[in-house]
Design goal:
Layout lengths: L13 H11 L8 E4 L8 H5 L5 H9 L3 E11 L2 E10 L7 E8 L5 H9 L4 H7 L4 E11 L4 H4 L9 E10 L2 E10 L2
Antiparallel strand pairs: 1-5, 2-3, 3-4, 4-7, 5-6, 6-7
Length: 185
């Protein structure tokens, strides 16, 4: 989908949503982020973020390599499962994306739930492979300061701001996943 047709639909401050996502993990970080319109994202971030597709597919195509997931924090309460994660492309040691995923596992079948809990594959890859009817909606776009702890995950030689999005994934017509996806500067 072209960036011009993507509109921010979120009624609250996206940085507040990020704080709430972090709070799910017991973190009190205050993200150094500001909201942007999709058309204000610089390239290549506009191409990488301003779409209603899975980041797994977009980043794999952009980097020309399969992605692997590296969760670094997992929190699971009842049917709510969350992970803070990095995605790596091929043999690259630095993440190409960092993010947060919070999933209502009650909305998927037990075999899918088990595969998600194993945390061995990126979520988009699992949902695509399992042929789950899904819809990805980019809700908001953010610019993260160069010194934000989430941006620091990229270990860039020269600190630079990073750009990300908040997105929702509907599975079989029901909102199942909240995502924060930040791509490497």
């Amino acid at each position: 989908m072209h960036a011009q047709s993507l509109k921010r639909t979120m009624a609250v401050d996206p940085a507040k949503v990020v704080r709430l996502m972090l709070a799910f993990f017991g973190d009190s970080e205050v993200p150094l982020a500001e909201p942007l319109a999709a058309e204000d994202l610089p390239e290549p971030y506009q191409k990488l973020l301003a779409h209603n597709g899975h980041m797994t597919e977009v980043l794999s195509a952009h980097h020309g390599a399969a992605l692997t997931v590296r969760p670094y924090r997992i929190h699971h309460i009842g049917e709510l499962y969350g992970r803070r994660l990095d995605l790596l492309a091929g043999d690259e040691p630095r993440p190409v994306m960092t993010g947060i995923m919070i999933f209502n596992l009650a909305l998927v079948a037990p075999p899918v739930r088990q595969e998600i809990l194993q945390a061995q594959s990126p979520l988009g890859e699992i949902l695509i492979r399992r042929r789950i009817l899904r819809r990805v909606v980019a809700d908001a776009f953010l610019r993260f300061a160069a010194d934000d702890p989430l941006t620091a995950r990229f270990a860039s030689p020269a600190p630079r701001p990073a750009y990300g999005r908040l997105a929702t994934i509907d599975c079989d017509g029901r909102s199942a996943v909240d995502l924060l996806e930040i791509v490497r500067p």
